[in-house]
Design goal:
Strand order of the largest sheet: 3-2-1-4-5-6-7
Oligomer: single chain
Organism: Motacilla alba (White wagtail)
Structural class: alpha/beta
CATH topology of the largest domain: Rossmann fold
Distance between the termini: 45 Å
CATH class of the largest domain: Alpha Beta
Radius of gyration: 33 Å
Subunit structure: Homodimer. Homotetramer. Homohexamer. The hexameric form exhibits both enzyme activities, whereas the dimeric form only catalyzes the phosphorylation of N-acyl-D-mannosamine.
Catalytic activity: UDP-N-acetyl-alpha-D-glucosamine + H2O = aldehydo-N-acetyl-D-mannosamine + UDP + H(+); an N-acyl-D-mannosamine + ATP = an N-acyl-D-mannosamine 6-phosphate + ADP + H(+)
Largest sheet: 7 strands, parallel
EC number: 2.7.1.60, 3.2.1.183
GO biological process, one term: UDP-N-acetylglucosamine metabolic process
Helix content: 40-55%
CATH superfamily of the largest domain: Glycogen Phosphorylase B
Length: about 725
């Protein structure tokens, strides 16, 4: 800790020397409404407290300057900040067109202000349309932008605006680890992202012990007790105004029926707010004895009100963010905050056709006390932000850089490029062999390479890279354009991260292996990884019997038994990437032991390993060979010998194959009763030997409603490689995987 503190001090010292020892960072903070000021004020106080490092200019615009919304610029003056500029930017009308015109008006007025102030950096908060105008102006005028609360997810148009500001901003202060990861995923420079927490939490976490009864009395009446009133704050949803007004009407009806003292704050200036105010007045809220309707409450007092309320209801971000710090119950209405991280104190009512659902939510939540949540901060955001500001080097290039994932270098557009065949590198990791192929968009295997699969992780990965590099070089000679690398491997795979979680016993040293990163770094190509059974299903979906089929199942019958399930045209992976482990469906409680450690699995009866085991038993008892068969002394007994013996009339071999086919058929009946596919595809070297037995079991054991299912044998010569290729070809061309 001491080391990093000293390192930070040294960096700040170097930055001061670069910027000029006497140069103070000129910071412009622009605030548009009461909500963003509650987040910006703690930062402004921090900047003001360090005049040796900073010069602060405050610009006020938006609804701060409108009487109907409380003239909230006054609280900035009460906090003893000098307002450098007031810009009237709101075009009244409270509809979509007025929002657009307000952005345009702000864009017209801001350049003159920024030319006069010449700030080194502008601090912009959140996701409001006013903030978009601020960020656009600053970016076009080559002013560095620090964006507060980027990377978060919510509903309505706010999401799009927030992410647009992120793209314009040079530096980012985020509140949660998820938000930080979202920013990184959006290709923002990790070195310019600060995970600080929410600045308002610096006030929140020290606020609850202050005198609050006088504040409650002032806003709700002297007869109101703590935990016996409601705070309601609901805004219009700009992407569905009509529905949000209907929900607001239902909310007021529910609050009237609930019959508790309620503080109702007027909505913000978004499109639809005028209609919401009309609803309030139509229902007589401003004159109802149980309601107090107000345009604005100072943030310090608002904190006390929500901290000691019996419940907060509405769709304000305050409800899902700040209120969690006190454990106050919250009812979040509608879609405006969809995607926000929330504590256990939040109960969501996504949709409501009547007031009953909201009323029931009030009955469930009112008066409860939940554990305090610190998802959005620990009370130390401002010191981190000030430290971050001091570390900004003004001599660094202004042009921001995006950290895109590695991709193949662009090549000039010429006739050879146009005529190239779009292709994929497909890798199949089997228990014995390692294969790499160039596969065209039509499913043609243009070139294939095969090597024995090494026993150790290091040798295996080195061989994969060597074979892929060789294949990629050869692709140029055969006029193929490689779009990416698809890998099919045994075991349980996390396809989102490209990691083999657990391997089968057939592939050693192959658990918790990140395949995507080293191969992508080496080849500069995107890489996809999935389980071999899933890849077989994808191969059928793109090139085989499953093409155009909405619901089907593929089973691989080979050394082991695997498979994949396609439901509504999409592959099912499951919550822990363990779906479609079809070989481990148990069909007998006291059957033979399986490699997985269980007993009676399909794989313990019908896999190549299981048949080889039974063949060895017959051979050891001199019951395998019949007339027409011969084996050399050193020859290893295999499943093929069992199949040959059965064809030549060996009754015991026939019985083993019949039992294996029955076990496979029973497993498929279970699948039919579970996911009800319209097609079952048998793939692998044993498929032809099992297909008739499977159909017989279905006719005898399945419910009549699923007996009509088609059971076919795959016509694909190499489903593992074709499936690995389809991982790439489907995603890069149609983005459906």
């Amino acid at each position: 800790e001491v080391y990093f503190k000293n390192l930070s001090k040294q960096k700040q010292k170097e930055v001061m020397e670069k910027n000029g020892s006497n140069h103070k960072l000129r910071v412009c903070v622009a605030t548009c409404n009461r909500a963003d000021y509650s987040k910006l004020a703690p930062i402004m106080f921090g900047i003001k407290a360090e005049p040796q490092f900073f010069e602060l200019d405050v610009v006020v615009l938006g609804s701060h300057l409108i009487d109907d919304y409380g003239n909230t610029y006054r609280m900035i003056e009460q906090d003893d900040f000098d307002i450098h500029t007031r810009l009237h930017t709101i075009v009244r009308g409270e509809d979509e067109a007025a929002m657009v015109e307000s952005v345009g008006l702000a864009l017209v007025k801001l350049p003159d202000v920024l030319n006069r102030l010449k700030p080194d950096i502008m601090i912009v908060h959140g996701d409001r349309f006013d903030a978009l105008a601020l960020a656009t102006s600053a970016a076009l005028m080559n002013i560095r932008i620090l964006h507060i609360e980027g990377g978060e997810v919510s509903g309505t148009i706010d999401d799009s605006i927030r992410h647009a500001i992120t793209k314009l901003a040079h530096y980012h202060v985020c509140c949660t680890r998820s938000a930080e990861q979202h920013l990184i995923a959006m290709c923002e420079d990790h070195d310019r992202i600060l995970l600080a927490g929410c600045p308002s939490y610096d006030k929140l976490l020290s606020a609850k012990n202050k005198d609050y009864m006088s504040i409650i009395s002032m806003w709700l009446g002297e007869d109101v007790k703590t935990r016996d009133y409601i705070v309601a704050l609901q805004h219009p949803v700009t992407t569905d105004i009509k529905h949000s007004i209907k929900m607001f009407e239902l909310t007021l009806d529910a609050l009237i029926s609930f019959n508790k003292r309620t503080l109702v704050l007027f909505p913000n200036v978004d499109a639809g707010s005028k209609e919401m105010v009309r609803v309030m007045r139509k229902k007589g809220i401003e004159h109802h004895p149980n309601f107090r309707a107000v345009k604005h409450v100072p943030f310090d007092q608002f904190i006390q009100l929500v901290a000691h309320a019996g419940c907060m209801i509405g769709n304000s971000s305050c409800g899902v963010r700040e209120v969690g710090a006190f454990g106050t119950p919250v009812i979040n209405l509608g879609t405006r905050q969809t995607g926000r991280e929330t504590g256990e104190n939040v109960l969501h009512v996504r949709d409501a056709d009547t007031q009953d659902k909201i009323l029931h939510a009030l009955q469930l939540q009112f008066g409860k006390q939940y554990p305090c949540s610190k998802i959005y901060g620990d009370g130390n955001a401002v010191p981190r932000i000030l430290k971050f500001l001091k570390s900004i080097d003004l001599k660094e290039p202004l042009q921001k850089k995006f950290c895109f994932p590695p991709v193949k270098d662009n090549i000039s557009q010429d006739i050879d490029h146009i005529l190239e065949t779009q292709s994929a590198l497909a890798v199949d990791l089997g228990g014995t062999n390692l294969r790499v192929a160039i596969v065209s968009m039509k499913g043609e295997i243009v070139k294939k390479y095969t090597q024995l699969n090494p026993k150790t992780y290091e040798d295996r990965l080195a061989l994969i890279l060597k074979m892929c590099v060789e294949a990629a070089s050869e692709a140029v000679n055969v006029n193929c354009r490689i779009l990416g690398v698809g890998i099919s491997t045994g075991g349980r795979v996390n396809p989102r991260e490209g990691i083999v979680l657990h391997s089968t016993k057939l592939i050693q040293e192959w658990s918790s292996v990140d395949l995507r990163t080293p191969i992508s770094d080496a080849l500069h190509l995107p890489v996809w990884v999935d389980n071999d059974g899933n890849c077989a299903a994808l191969a059928e979906r793109k090139f085989g019997h499953g093409k155009g089929i909405e619901n089907f199942v593929t089973l691989i019958t080979g050394t082991g038994i695997g498979g994949g399930i396609v439901h509504q045209h999409e592959l099912i992976h499951g919550s822990s990437f363990c779906a479609a482990e079809l070989g481990h469906i148990v069909v007998s409680l006291d059957g033979p032991e399986c490699l997985c450690g269980s007993q009676g699995c399909i794989e313990a009866y019908a896999s190549g390993i299981a048949l080889q085991r039974e063949a060895k038993k017959l051979h050891d008892d001199d019951l395998l060979l019949v007339e027409g068969m011969s084996m050399k002394e050193e020859e290893i007994v295999s499943a093929a010998h069992l199949i040959q013996a059965a064809k030549l009339g060996n009754v015991k071999a026939e019985g083993i194959l019949r039992t294996a086919g029955t076990a496979l058929g029973l497993g498929i009946v279970n699948i039919l009763h579970t996911v009800n596919p319209s097609l079952v595809i048998l793939s692998g070297v044993l498929a032809n030997h099992y297909v008739n037995a499977v159909k017989d079991v279905i006719n005898r054991q399945a419910l009549s409603s699923v007996k009509t299912v088609d059971v076919v044998v795959s016509n694909l010569a190499d489903p593992a490689l074709l499936g690995a290729a389809s991982l790439v070809l489907d995603y890069t061309t149609r983005r459906i995987y």
